Hints:
Blueprint: E1 3-7, H1 16-27, E2 31-34, H2 35-38, H3 46-54, E3 58-64, H4 72-81, E4 100-106, H5 124-127, H6 129-138, E5 141-142, E6 146-148, H7 156-170, H8 180-188
Parallel strand pairs: 1-2, 1-3, 3-4, 4-5, 4-6
Helix pairs in contact: 1-7
Amino acid sequence: MKVLYLVFHPDLTKSRVNSAWTQAARQAGFTVKDMYSLYPNFKFDVEREQKDLLEHDRIVLQFPFYWYSSPALLKQWLDDVLTFGFAYGPKEMLKLAGKDLVLSVSVGGPQDSYVPGGYNNFTVPELLRPFQQTAFLCRLNYCTPFWMHGSVIATPENAKEYGKKMVQHLTDPSISDIWSVQKRIFKSMGIS
């Protein structure tokens, strides 16, 4: 399985967790791209980005959780790269259908703040729903996300430990089983 690992952190040198995870992904042999260093002006080489997506089986989006969402460059990448006629549209245009999408997210707050009625009121998976819907629209297999709470207080050892766990998670074929139901729905709609 070929893994494309896209890192959307504005400054990896200032993040123990995101830099440790990026290093772990490189060591695992993933195709790693530091998107902020490649596109500091937010102007994507769309053809190159789409080609990279087509050449890989599993697409990983790594980012810190900002205001219950992603950094701005990831949103811009979604807008510019996942275009009509490439990522979504009529069935014959779905070039990414069947590929896996996995999120790898560093969350600053503690776990107990991401529960119903907690400080942030919702769980991390609930707050990631827009990505889940994007996967649904593009007919990607939305895989079980990976995240780490308390990233702002993580020690270098914690970050490295979670980097190993993250690689294990991302290389586990069973994480894409989350959408076996989705596949049955597509089939019932005449979409393969």
